[in-house]
Every structure is written in C-alpha cells, then in structure tokens.
Amino acid sequence: MFKFLKDAWQDAKQRVEGDQARAAAQAARTTEDVGPTMVSVAQKFADALNAKGARLDFTPASLAIVDRMLARTKEEMHTLSGAEKQSLQNQACLHLGAYLGEVVRREAGGVWIKGEDGLPRIDLYSHVAPVVTVVLGLIHRGHVDMPGGPVETLTAYCNVVSETARAALGQAV
After folding, report:
1. Residue 113 belongs to what domain range?
2. pLDDT (tens digit per residue) in 121-140
3. For residues 129 and 113, what is the distance between their CA atoms, to the nearest angstrom?
4. CB burial of residue 26 (10 Å; 0-12, 13-18, 19+)
C-alpha cells in the first residue's frame, strides 16, 4: 500500500512540475498578450460574415462555412499575382486562422499564445495548435499533416485537435 501511495505521489509531483514547466515556457514565449487581439479579429470576421447571412457561431459545425470560404480564397488567389495575391493570403491566414483558433479554444479549452515564430497559436496544454500556419498549409498544399494522417479542411483539423486534447485530458485524469 505504501508503494502505491509513493508511486501516486511521484506521478502527481511530476505532473505538477510538468505543468509549471509548461507555464514557464508559455510565459517565455508570450511577450505580449495575443489573446484579446485574436478574439477581436475572430469576432469581427464572424460579424462581417453574419451580416451577409452566414451563421458563424464559434462552433465546430460553423467551420463548414469557413471551409467554403477557404476554397473560394484559393480559387481567387489563382487569378491574382504579386502584392495582391500576398495580401489576400495574409488576410485569409489572419481571419480564418483567428476564427479557427477561437473555435478550437472554445471547444478544447485552450489559451492564445504567441509562438516562437511570433505567430498566434492555441495552447491546449497537452499540445499547441498552430492555427494560422494551418490555414497557410491548406492554401498552399491543400492539406496539413497530422499524427493520424493528413487533413484537408479546417473542420477536420478542429476535430483532430479537439480529440487529441480530450484524449490527453483523459489520460491525465
């Protein structure tokens, strides 16, 4: 019985130390609070589309609308060149990434952080979801590689990330 208690204590101590190390790493990565900015960008994006009749409510189901917008953006990019193409890509990565990030954050319970590359990400404690670069990968390659295989939509990405976060939480509990 004492061995069980000792092992349980060691396991709990390691988890606390891991949480503290993760918090310290997050603090080191986060030189400014990107959360309010990204939430604001996502809300303005949703408001603009809602005014046009879309229904973006920050649920995973609403990502189907954003996936269609991503497809139209990719088509439009083929008609542009130079600075116009780059501007459209940057706007898509920011707005779609912010909305995707807010959906993931609300669904899986993470926080916005600034990654080592300076881009906003969602820290889900068990892993970090690089939402802006995911949009870029979908624009350029049509998919992003995930541990279970490639995903080709924002909806699929959200599902994989959320399931991974739930599984990690289940193992921790």
Report:
1. 32-172
2. 999 988 899 999 999 999 99
3. 10
4. middle
pLDDT tens digit string along 58-75?
A: 999 999 999 999 999 999
The verdict on residue 49 lying in a domain is yes
Q: What is the torsion angle, in degrees rounded to the nearest 10, for the CA atoms of residue 100, residue 103, residue 109 and residue 111?
A: 40
CA atoms within 13 A on the CB side of 84: 8
Residues 126, 173 contacting (CB under 8 angstroms): no
Domains contained in the chain, number: 1
Pull the structure tokens for residue 138.
Answer: 């979908």
Q: Within the chain, which residues score under 70 in pLDDT?
A: 1-32, 173
Which is nearest to 118 in space by CA: 108, 106, 133? 133
- Residue 24: other Cβ atoms inside 10 A: 10
DSSP line for 14-47:
HHHHHHHHHHHHHHHH-SS--HHHHHHHHHHHHH
Q: Could you give the CA distance from residue 161 to residue 119 in angstroms, rounded to a whole number?
A: 18
